[in-house]
Amino acid sequence: MAQIPTTFPTVPPALVSYDYVDFSNGTGYDIYYGAKGSNGSLMTTTQANVYSEEITTQHTGEFATSYGAAKLDVDFDINFNLPKDIKGDILLNVPVGIMGLEAGASTFDWYVRGYAYHFNGGEIQIATATSEAFQVVSALGNGVIDTYEKVVLLKMNVASVKHFKKGDTLRITIQTFMRRGGVTGTGIIGIGHDPLNRNDFTWKQEDGTVISQIITDGNTTRLSIHVPFVIET
Q1: Which domains does the chain have, with CATH numbers?
Q2: Residue 74 predicted with pLDDT over 60
Q3: What pLDDT does residue 210 have?
Q4: Cα angle at 214 between 211 and 217, to 5 degrees?
Q5: Taking the complete model, does pTM exceed 0.85, yes or no?
Q6: Which of 159, 25, 17, 152 has the alpha carbon at shortest distance from 91?
Q7: What's the CA gap between 106 and 124, in Å, rounded?
Protein backbone atom coordinates (compact mmCIF):
# COMPACT_ATOMS: atom_id res chain seq x y z
CA MET A 1 0.00 0.00 0.00
CA ALA A 2 1.30 3.41 -0.94
CA GLN A 3 2.21 5.58 2.02
CA ILE A 4 0.09 8.72 2.44
CA PRO A 5 2.22 11.86 2.70
CA THR A 6 2.13 13.43 6.14
CA THR A 7 3.35 16.88 5.12
CA PHE A 8 1.38 19.55 3.36
CA PRO A 9 2.35 22.75 1.54
CA THR A 10 2.45 25.76 3.80
CA VAL A 11 1.77 29.41 3.06
CA PRO A 12 5.03 31.30 2.54
CA PRO A 13 5.81 33.48 5.58
CA ALA A 14 5.89 36.54 3.29
CA LEU A 15 2.11 36.27 2.77
CA VAL A 16 1.21 36.45 6.43
CA SER A 17 1.55 40.22 6.79
CA TYR A 18 -0.70 41.25 3.87
CA ASP A 19 -4.32 42.31 4.33
CA TYR A 20 -5.26 40.25 1.26
CA VAL A 21 -3.51 38.56 -1.66
CA ASP A 22 -4.05 38.58 -5.44
CA PHE A 23 -2.42 35.26 -6.31
CA SER A 24 -3.04 35.58 -10.05
CA ASN A 25 -0.87 38.71 -10.20
CA GLY A 26 1.63 37.73 -7.51
CA THR A 27 0.80 40.72 -5.33
CA GLY A 28 -0.10 41.18 -1.68
CA TYR A 29 -2.23 44.18 -0.73
CA ASP A 30 -1.91 46.31 2.39
CA ILE A 31 -4.61 48.85 3.23
CA TYR A 32 -3.72 52.31 4.53
CA TYR A 33 -6.25 54.81 5.87
CA GLY A 34 -6.08 58.58 5.53
CA ALA A 35 -6.32 60.75 8.66
CA LYS A 36 -5.61 64.25 9.97
CA GLY A 37 -3.39 64.70 13.00
CA SER A 38 -1.81 67.48 15.02
CA ASN A 39 -1.45 70.92 13.43
CA GLY A 40 -3.73 69.84 10.59
CA SER A 41 -1.17 67.45 9.10
CA LEU A 42 -2.49 64.68 6.86
CA MET A 43 -1.11 61.17 7.37
CA THR A 44 -1.81 57.49 6.88
CA THR A 45 -2.23 54.56 9.26
CA THR A 46 -2.80 50.82 8.90
CA GLN A 47 -5.12 50.82 11.92
CA ALA A 48 -8.87 51.26 11.36
CA ASN A 49 -9.44 52.01 15.08
CA VAL A 50 -7.65 55.40 14.95
CA TYR A 51 -9.60 58.62 15.42
CA SER A 52 -8.80 61.41 12.96
CA GLU A 53 -8.65 64.83 14.64
CA GLU A 54 -10.89 66.15 11.87
CA ILE A 55 -13.24 63.93 9.87
CA THR A 56 -13.11 65.94 6.63
CA THR A 57 -10.96 68.42 4.74
CA GLN A 58 -13.00 71.02 2.86
CA HIS A 59 -12.83 73.91 0.42
CA THR A 60 -15.48 76.62 0.78
CA GLY A 61 -15.76 79.45 -1.72
CA GLU A 62 -17.04 80.71 -5.03
CA PHE A 63 -17.17 78.28 -7.92
CA ALA A 64 -16.96 79.60 -11.47
CA THR A 65 -18.64 78.04 -14.50
CA SER A 66 -15.32 76.45 -15.55
CA TYR A 67 -13.27 74.01 -13.49
CA GLY A 68 -9.98 75.93 -13.28
CA ALA A 69 -7.42 74.82 -10.70
CA ALA A 70 -8.02 72.07 -8.15
CA LYS A 71 -10.12 73.17 -5.16
CA LEU A 72 -8.38 70.65 -2.91
CA ASP A 73 -4.84 69.38 -3.47
CA VAL A 74 -3.77 67.18 -0.55
CA ASP A 75 -1.10 64.53 0.09
CA PHE A 76 -1.25 61.31 2.11
CA ASP A 77 2.23 59.83 2.64
CA ILE A 78 3.07 56.18 3.27
CA ASN A 79 6.58 55.86 4.70
CA PHE A 80 8.46 52.57 4.37
CA ASN A 81 10.81 51.29 7.07
CA LEU A 82 11.75 48.29 4.91
CA PRO A 83 12.51 47.98 1.17
CA LYS A 84 9.34 47.42 -0.90
CA ASP A 85 8.50 46.63 -4.52
CA ILE A 86 5.18 47.93 -5.89
CA LYS A 87 3.46 46.76 -9.06
CA GLY A 88 -0.20 46.57 -10.06
CA ASP A 89 -3.32 48.60 -9.34
CA ILE A 90 -3.32 51.03 -6.44
CA LEU A 91 -6.98 51.28 -5.41
CA LEU A 92 -8.04 54.58 -3.89
CA ASN A 93 -11.45 55.03 -2.23
CA VAL A 94 -12.31 58.69 -1.62
CA PRO A 95 -15.54 59.78 0.17
CA VAL A 96 -16.61 63.13 -1.31
CA GLY A 97 -19.17 65.57 0.08
CA ILE A 98 -20.78 68.53 -1.73
CA MET A 99 -22.88 71.36 -0.33
CA GLY A 100 -24.51 74.29 -2.12
CA LEU A 101 -24.74 77.56 -0.19
CA GLU A 102 -27.05 79.51 -2.50
CA ALA A 103 -30.62 80.49 -1.62
CA GLY A 104 -31.87 78.65 -4.70
CA ALA A 105 -31.12 75.33 -6.31
CA SER A 106 -27.50 75.01 -7.48
CA THR A 107 -26.08 72.67 -10.11
CA PHE A 108 -22.48 71.58 -9.62
CA ASP A 109 -20.20 69.41 -11.77
CA TRP A 110 -17.23 67.78 -10.09
CA TYR A 111 -14.57 65.09 -10.38
CA VAL A 112 -11.56 63.69 -8.51
CA ARG A 113 -8.01 63.01 -9.71
CA GLY A 114 -5.42 60.90 -7.94
CA TYR A 115 -1.65 60.60 -8.32
CA ALA A 116 0.89 58.15 -6.90
CA TYR A 117 4.46 59.39 -6.49
CA HIS A 118 7.73 57.81 -5.45
CA PHE A 119 9.10 60.44 -3.08
CA ASN A 120 12.73 60.53 -2.00
CA GLY A 121 13.53 64.22 -1.79
CA GLY A 122 11.62 64.77 -5.04
CA GLU A 123 8.43 63.45 -6.60
CA ILE A 124 8.47 60.90 -9.43
CA GLN A 125 5.00 60.11 -10.74
CA ILE A 126 4.34 56.37 -11.04
CA ALA A 127 0.56 56.28 -11.60
CA THR A 128 -2.54 58.45 -11.97
CA ALA A 129 -6.29 58.16 -12.55
CA THR A 130 -9.25 60.52 -12.94
CA SER A 131 -12.87 59.80 -12.05
CA GLU A 132 -15.76 60.48 -14.35
CA ALA A 133 -17.45 63.86 -14.01
CA PHE A 134 -20.53 63.86 -11.78
CA GLN A 135 -23.39 66.37 -11.64
CA VAL A 136 -25.46 67.19 -8.60
CA VAL A 137 -28.25 69.65 -7.83
CA SER A 138 -27.48 70.77 -4.28
CA ALA A 139 -29.90 72.93 -2.27
CA LEU A 140 -33.63 72.69 -2.66
CA GLY A 141 -34.38 76.39 -2.99
CA ASN A 142 -35.76 78.83 -0.41
CA GLY A 143 -32.42 78.82 1.37
CA VAL A 144 -32.59 75.13 2.33
CA ILE A 145 -29.06 73.71 2.37
CA ASP A 146 -28.75 70.18 1.04
CA THR A 147 -25.77 67.84 1.01
CA TYR A 148 -24.63 65.21 -1.47
CA GLU A 149 -22.00 62.55 -1.05
CA LYS A 150 -20.41 59.82 -3.13
CA VAL A 151 -17.49 57.41 -2.75
CA VAL A 152 -15.11 57.52 -5.70
CA LEU A 153 -12.92 54.54 -6.60
CA LEU A 154 -9.76 55.33 -8.56
CA LYS A 155 -7.62 52.54 -10.03
CA MET A 156 -4.07 53.80 -10.53
CA ASN A 157 -1.96 51.28 -12.42
CA VAL A 158 1.74 50.91 -11.68
CA ALA A 159 2.74 49.16 -14.91
CA SER A 160 6.25 48.04 -13.95
CA VAL A 161 7.98 47.20 -10.68
CA LYS A 162 8.91 50.29 -8.67
CA HIS A 163 11.50 49.72 -5.95
CA PHE A 164 11.27 51.72 -2.74
CA LYS A 165 14.30 51.76 -0.48
CA LYS A 166 14.12 51.93 3.30
CA GLY A 167 13.09 55.48 4.17
CA ASP A 168 11.36 56.14 0.82
CA THR A 169 7.76 57.36 0.64
CA LEU A 170 4.75 56.49 -1.46
CA ARG A 171 2.84 59.77 -1.79
CA ILE A 172 -0.83 59.69 -2.72
CA THR A 173 -2.11 63.05 -3.96
CA ILE A 174 -5.85 63.73 -4.20
CA GLN A 175 -7.26 66.68 -6.14
CA THR A 176 -10.90 67.74 -6.36
CA PHE A 177 -12.36 69.92 -9.10
CA MET A 178 -15.80 71.57 -9.13
CA ARG A 179 -17.70 74.14 -11.19
CA ARG A 180 -21.09 75.80 -10.91
CA GLY A 181 -23.62 75.40 -13.68
CA GLY A 182 -24.93 78.59 -15.32
CA VAL A 183 -23.51 81.30 -13.05
CA THR A 184 -20.84 81.64 -10.38
CA GLY A 185 -22.01 80.54 -6.95
CA THR A 186 -20.81 79.50 -3.50
CA GLY A 187 -20.50 76.00 -2.19
CA ILE A 188 -18.35 73.42 -0.43
CA ILE A 189 -16.47 70.37 -1.67
CA GLY A 190 -14.58 68.12 0.69
CA ILE A 191 -13.26 64.63 1.35
CA GLY A 192 -13.65 62.33 4.33
CA HIS A 193 -10.64 60.73 6.07
CA ASP A 194 -11.58 59.13 9.37
CA PRO A 195 -10.12 55.61 9.84
CA LEU A 196 -12.76 54.84 12.49
CA ASN A 197 -15.52 55.77 9.99
CA ARG A 198 -17.43 58.06 12.37
CA ASN A 199 -20.33 60.19 11.19
CA ASP A 200 -19.40 63.66 9.97
CA PHE A 201 -20.76 66.59 11.99
CA THR A 202 -20.85 70.39 12.10
CA TRP A 203 -18.40 71.99 14.53
CA LYS A 204 -16.66 75.29 15.25
CA GLN A 205 -12.92 75.97 15.22
CA GLU A 206 -11.22 78.05 17.91
CA ASP A 207 -11.26 81.09 15.60
CA GLY A 208 -15.03 80.76 15.19
CA THR A 209 -14.97 79.24 11.71
CA VAL A 210 -17.84 76.79 11.26
CA ILE A 211 -16.96 73.47 9.59
CA SER A 212 -20.14 72.10 8.04
CA GLN A 213 -21.29 68.51 7.92
CA ILE A 214 -20.98 67.58 4.24
CA ILE A 215 -21.30 63.78 4.54
CA THR A 216 -24.63 62.75 6.00
CA ASP A 217 -25.01 60.21 8.79
CA GLY A 218 -24.61 56.59 7.75
CA ASN A 219 -22.33 57.34 4.79
CA THR A 220 -18.68 56.38 5.01
CA THR A 221 -16.00 58.88 5.97
CA ARG A 222 -13.15 56.35 5.61
CA LEU A 223 -10.51 57.07 2.96
CA SER A 224 -8.60 53.92 2.02
CA ILE A 225 -5.52 53.24 -0.11
CA HIS A 226 -4.93 49.64 -1.26
CA VAL A 227 -1.28 49.18 -2.22
CA PRO A 228 -0.04 46.14 -4.26
CA PHE A 229 3.34 44.77 -3.18
CA VAL A 230 5.26 42.18 -5.19
CA ILE A 231 5.30 38.88 -3.29
CA GLU A 232 8.78 37.51 -2.73
CA THR A 233 9.23 34.03 -4.18
Answers
A1: 33-203+211-230 (2.60.120)
A2: yes
A3: 80
A4: 115
A5: yes
A6: 152
A7: 39
